[in-house]
Hints:
By secondary structure, the chain is mostly helical. The protein contains 12 helices and 2 strands. Helices cover 76% and strands 3% of the residues.
Amino acid sequence: xxxxxxxxxxxxxxxxxxxxxxxxxxxxxxxxxxxxxxxxxxxxxxxxxxxxxxxxxxxxxxxxxxxxxxxxxxxxxxxxxxxxxxxxxxxxxxxxxxxxxxxxxxxxxxxxxxxxxxxxxxxxxxxxxxxxxxxxxxxxxxxxxxxxxxxxxxxxxxxxxxxxxxxxxxxxxxxxxxxxxxxxxxxxxxxxxxxxxxxxxxxxxxxxxxxxxxxxxxxxxxxxxxxxxxxxxxxxxxxxxxxxxxxxxxxxxxxxxxxxxxxxxxxxxxxxxxxxxxxxxxxxxxxxxxxxxxxxxxxxxxxxxxxxxxxxxxxxxxxxxxxxxxxxxxx
Length: 331
């Protein structure tokens, strides 16, 4: 009798395990294909927008691509399928930059494949060890690695392409947003202001009251000559220390950009490699520092799409025999 009971328990355990395995597997290749193709198309769209200079729209598309990557984590079970998705999306993301194909290009694409695959693996491990689907934790794991990786990926491609660090992009995406911070230290700082006018105002603002009174007593011609002399001496001192040439008739942004490019072009060998590494690390941690701000709105959009997909019956939540929630694409 004990043998019969033991055999019954063994048989029931086998049945329950078989049910669990049957539930937590990919069941609809058509729907999996739709999810993967959606990610590939978004990756290609993002590539097209960045390659053609539509940087703001490219960032919007990148956000939706990161949302699709989170949804793929939820709805695709097999890691082999997720790896294929990572490979196809990385290749599609580089699609409109193939004119700049090189060894560096291959390294950039390979790095993104590795990072996306690692992200997929971490999320699948979390889902497989959790009884309930912890939606917000899954979003955080996925987004915290995918968004910085995607942004660095496209920045690297634009750098190889030579269309990233242009004067226009430097002014619009770096100088203008940081102008209020710079203005706190340099009064009336404006990237579009004429350089001579800006230096003149800066020097006068730093005059003592006595110097200002002496300057005001001078005849207009002598006053202008004195100011021009000070401006020329100041610009000459900057030129000697930076090694770049300042054009007083051009905007401030043009001269700052020229100074940075002059310093960069002087770098060679190990100094150049070190500067690139420091730049990549700085950009990465800058993006990571923004993630607490970006996470909530993006995760909320993921949640909306997630609920819509479940509500339409495209996928559903089921319970395993051990009461673990899993998501499957409905046949």
